[in-house]
Amino acid sequence: MDSAVVIAMARERGFDVHALSVRYGQRHTSELDAAARIARELGAVAHKTVHVDLGSIGGSALTDTSIDVPLDDDGHAIGVDAAKNTIPVTYVPARNTIMLSIALGWAEVLGAADLFCGVNAVDYSGYPDCRPEFVEAFERLANLATKAGVEGAGLRVHAPLQHLSKADIVREGVRLGVDFSQTVSCYRADEAGRACGHCDACRLRADGFTAAGIPDVTRYV
Amino acid sequence: MDSAVVIAMARERGFDVHALSVRYGQRHTSELDAAARIARELGAVAHKTVHVDLGSIGGSALTDTSIDVPLDDDGHAIGVDAAKNTIPVTYVPARNTIMLSIALGWAEVLGAADLFCGVNAVDYSGYPDCRPEFVEAFERLANLATKAGVEGAGLRVHAPLQHLSKADIVREGVRLGVDFSQTVSCYRADEAGRACGHCDACRLRADGFTAAGIPDVTRYV
């Protein structure tokens, strides 16, 4: 849902959107199928999926089948405890660094100077690569790593959801006409993109609809 | 050859080496086959190849088959003109950013705090992501992007070839026992890893042996 809202926000600001999905070894691909469909519906000029097999380096329950997505005694996924500032096993090592790097490569090819990403500091405080300091450091790197940086035009990394709550994101999406019934957030979605309703991602998302006072249109199993 | 010398230098400094190759859509894979063999011979604990299909974003003669490696009237590849500070078409968009990002992910999984890369500012001044500012910016990013950064232990990015000439690299490799007949630098190597002798990479490499006063053991076609 975050990525969809980012596309809608970039479109509203007048950008031609080239949308990138990265398949990094996720257990399911329904999220990627949904991304292609949503990008088209929101008026993106192009959508590409780049594959990087992070499963081969392991370390995350999302890509390493030897690590279980953690569940509590009732069979529900154990939530991210932001208050403890711990990093959950669903963290994918260096995920946002890798995804932004690939986006940077495509931006160079396109001659694009603006990268948008859906990182959000409020709901995911257990993930170091969602913080504003990370985004700023990546922008600095991008300007040293590329032709656009060397030749002086400069690149910007936009993270328009950075300081929004999940409820704010839901409201912004509804305002911009995003069809949230099509977006897939669940870590364990089935092939049709239907959500489990129990994992961290499902709970954060459902809480967002509740807090925004907007009916949850998510398709659950 | 640069990567092989970096492994030997890290081993000399007492590190347990986990060597990473990234298959980013190169036209040939003999370089990767050679990397696995050389890593083993130089005493690396492990070697992995991670695939990322940069060919799908295009933009480089190394990954995009619609762009030719440029040749002069005699059929020789046109060299990098460092004096002009132009960026050659053999530049792969964001390549070092992407490769270091994947290395960072693996380092997180391993609990490793030291990343080594073979970037070199002297011979490749046309490539923005080979400069010391880039390496420093990546180290800063790595410390903001990861558990090791958040939890305070810190990561270091080493680029021990940074200020060495190609001749220095050849001499250092010979001193450390690197078998340069096994290393593949050529952009257009054949399946057996034999070099064309004409592309930028071949000419820089041959010049390095000449300048070092060391016989060129490269296997040419």
TrEMBL record, chains A, B:
Pfam families: QueC. Keywords: ATP-binding, Ligase, Metal-binding, Nucleotide-binding, Queuosine biosynthesis, Zinc. Zn(2+) binds at C186, C196, C199, C202. Its cofactor is Zn(2+). Binds 1 zinc ion per subunit. Its EC number is 6.3.4.20. Gene3D superfamilies: HUPs. CDD domains: QueC-like. InterPro entries: QueC, Rossmann-like_a/b/a_fold. It catalyses: 7-carboxy-7-carbaguanine + NH4(+) + 2 ATP = 7-cyano-7-carbaguanine + 2 AMP + 2 diphosphate + 2 H(+). Pathway: Purine metabolism; 7-cyano-7-deazaguanine biosynthesis. Belongs to the QueC family. Catalyzes the ATP-dependent conversion of 7-carboxy-7-deazaguanine (CDG) to 7-cyano-7-deazaguanine (preQ(0)). NCBIfam families: 7-cyano-7-deazaguanine synthase QueC. This is 7-cyano-7-deazaguanine synthase.
